[in-house]
Amino acid sequence: MVAPAVGDLTGSGTISPQHALNFQMRATIKSSSHILTALGQKSDVTIPFTITGTSADPSFKPDVKGAAKETLQQYTKDPSKAIDTAKGILDMFRKPKDPAPQK
Fold it and tell me: How far is CA 43 from the centre of its chain?
């Protein structure tokens, strides 16, 4: 499925004769979409997820392991992203500097 203003949905899977679902999916939200613009995101975001359960009661769950794997692969392609992310995380834990004393 492609919704040009929002993103793409791809994946594959099976439905058993008993209506059990087993799908691995990927939703890619385009950076040009209003959703990511509102969140301040400047690049596409891909969210891997699974669909399990039955056709009468499907269950949609994010694939955290898949997301982490994709993120690590992106960092190996562009190490500067990893450095910037690490700096951002460290900055969150640093104590703010005391402001100059008021006179």
Answer: 11
**pLDDT at res. 45:** 77
Percentage helix, strand, coil, to 5, in the chain?
A: 35, 35, 30
Q: Which residues pair with 25 in a beta bridge?
A: 11, 49
Domain coordinates in residue numbering, the chain = 1-62, 64-94
Of 18, 95, 96, whose CA–CA distance to 57 is shortest? Answer: 18
- For residues 59 and 35, give the distance between their C-alpha atoms in angstroms, rounded to a whole number: 24
C-beta atoms surrounding 29 within 10 Å: 19
For 48-78, how does the pLDDT look when each residue is reduced to its tens digit (9 = 90+)? 999 999 999 999 998 888 877 877 777 677 7
